[in-house]
Amino acid sequence: MTHRNRIVCLAWTTIVLASALLSCSKSEQKASKGQPPIPSATHASIDETLSAYEKISKALTEDDANVRADALDLARAAKAASATAPASLLRPLEELSAAAQRMGTLEADGLGEARAAFGDVSRAMISLLSAAPSLQEDLHVYECPMAKGYKKWVQREEGISNPYMGREMPKCGTEAHF
Prior knowledge:
By secondary structure, this protein is mainly α. 59% of the residues lie in helices and 6% in strands.
């Protein structure tokens, strides 16, 4: 191989490698969307917050206002998630914990108050999930135009189960966005 052929071969190899590295870098940027990775411990804690949140939502869908214990579980899980969360999630987790803590102090028989407090909890939950789009996977947001106060809520399963209207209008709403 002549000296010139080696230079041409080396140039082409460099171009191919540079292209591969650039395309890999771009796909990694798309996946992270500029967000720091969420530690697995934080994912697990946020999963616990979602489980407690869903218990509250289900109870309200069934017109059960006795959600204090689940609200306090949600507050504790959000606080626990703060221990391992990146800085970008600390404020949303604090807001979620505070809203859930307030909900945990409600009277057991106040369905209207429980639903209003759930609106505050839902606003904080959606704020948290909006701060880290990777957490939104397999989740759905619905919105009820008939609800008083905040109108959105989060569900893992497809299909509307409206916690704001309960048994009166369990399917009222439309799919919305984070």
